[in-house]
Amino acid sequence: MVYKLTYFDSYGRAENIQTPFGQIPVLEIDGKPLAQSFTIARYLAHKFNLTGKDEYETAVCDSIVDQYKDFISEVRTYWRVIKGFQEGDENKLKQEVFVPGIKKNLPLFVNFLKPNNSGIKFNVFKFRMNLLSGYLVGDHLTWADIVIASGMAELDNIDFEQLNGFPELRAHYQKIPKHFLKMVHYKLTYFDLYGRAEHIRQIFVVAGQNFEDVRIAREEWPALKSKTPFGQIPVLEVDGKPLAQSFTISRYLAHKFNLTGKDEYEAAVCDSIVDQYNDFINEIMPYKRVALGFLEGDKDKLRQDVYIPAIKKHFPFFVSFLKNNKSGFFVGDRLTWVDITLAHAFSTMDKTDSELIKDYPELSDHYRKIHSLPKIKEYLEKRPERPF
Ligand SMILES: N[C@@H](CCC(=O)N[C@@H](CS)C(=O)NCC(=O)O)C(=O)O
Fold first, then answer.
1. Are residues 68 and 151 in contact, defined by beta-carbon separation less than 8 angstroms?
2. Less crowded by CB within 10 Å, the N or C end of the chain?
3. Cα 268 from chain centroid?
4. H or E element: which one contains 244?
5. Residue 290 phi, psi dihedral angles, 5° rounding
6. Where is the GST N-terminal domain (predicted)?
7. CATH number of 53-180, picked from 3.40.50.1100, 1.10.3720.10, 1.20.1050.10, 3.40.1030.10
8. In the structure, what pLDDT confidence band is assigned to residue 132 with cuts at 50, 70 and 90?
9. Angstrom distances, CA of residue 317 to CA of 97, 158, 199, 354
10. Where are the domains of the chain?
């Protein structure tokens, strides 16, 4: 039997795909299509013996999954806003929709992991098995475990606090084999500086994605250098697999987290602006190395001969993107990774070289706008201050 599952690699829309109900995922079984994600999961669970040991357990699995679907539709507006699919007041929706949805539904799932679950009251043996097994239904892994565990793992990834009141659900998903869950572990390694990693950190912040922020000391670097793909950091590990080059890392994450504009053209315009910014960084490097004390040299001369001419050459381009675009963002009508990257650069420059950026008020207005977005604002208030 040949199974072919079609879904997005990241986020997007499905209008142009031929599907039974105009939506994906679609599973093709020997070429025959099946739509509706929970129907697909139930079908496969039956095939692969993940529905419990009898018809009652099978129906209990269905009931747990149906309750989970109710939960998802209750919190859907909040979810769509934080994933960037729709505009909305994130904080208000969190208080009015998300937190009440959590408080109402998560205890219902916990009940299935506790002594008072429905099976237990009537059947001591079932109760025992449940309690010992740690599974939601009976004494085996079912698709209900996989649905709930992947949902809870994702919730924990996005908003760690919410699951603090439900240790049973956290323990439950941690017990489920990791390959069943959607959780990706991100580990970012860099020096304890902003440098070439700060825009990557802020992309994670905007996406609401937890990541391991490893900040190594200078003394640790020589031992690590030969273990990195190009002898440099930052390096991002995605479930243990390394990825180097700071802008490759941020572009990769931007695609994952829907921060590349609305279509392929806008994604390419984002790339072009970041490439231009990279040209700027490369041009000013001789000055920066001396100014930051990594190399000996005539700092004042380099400032006049290298730094100021590079600013005069590149900054007007950035300004004209903002002027032509009108939305206040660099590309299209929404936040992209370009805004995050350049806002960090201009705000840092405003701290160290305010007299140079004051000729470009559009760039200061831009970084203030980006840095007043609630998630970035909160992050900036808490992050460790570094000189560069
Ligand atoms: N083009 C690379 C440059 C990376 C880079 O220059 N990394 C520096 C720190 S900012 C580094 O690893 N320096 C230590 C070394 O080269 O040994 C990127 O953007 O990631």
1. yes
2. N
3. 21
4. strand 241-244
5. -75, -45
6. 1-52, 184-261
7. 1.20.1050.10
8. low
9. 43, 36, 20, 19
10. 53-180, 186-256, 264-382
Place of tokens 């237990």: 120
Please state at what angle helix 55-82 crosses helix 143-158, rounded to 10 degrees.
20
Which atom of ligand 1 lies closest to the CA of 246? 20
Higher pLDDT pick, 185 / 1? 185
Tell me which residue of 138, 136, 115 sits closest to 53, measured CA to CA: 138
Spatial strand order in the sheet of 235-238 = 212-216, 186-191, 235-238, 241-244
Say if residues 27 and 34 touch (Cβ distance below 8 Å). yes
Q: How confident is the model at residue 142 (pLDDT cuts 50, 70, 90)?
A: very high
Distance between Cα 233 and ligand 1 center (Å) = 5
346: confidence class by pLDDT, cuts 50, 70, 90: very high
Tokens of 187: 């580990």
The count of other CB atoms within 10 Å of the CB of residue 64 is 21
Specify the higher pLDDT residue, 158 or 282: 282
Do the Cβ atoms of 202 and 376 come closer than 8 Å? Answer: yes
Tell me the C-alpha to C-alpha distance, in Å, between residue 227 and each of 200, 246, 349.
21, 17, 32
Which helix or strand (DSSP H or E) is residue 101 part of?
helix 99-111
Which CATH code is given to the segment(s) 264-382? Answer: 1.20.1050.10
The whole-number pLDDT of residue 12 equals 36
> Do 53-180 and 264-382 come out as alike in CATH topology?
yes
**Ligand 1, from 189, 190, 196: best to mutate by most atoms within 8 Å of Cβ?**
196
| 246 C-beta closer than 6 A to ligand 1 | yes
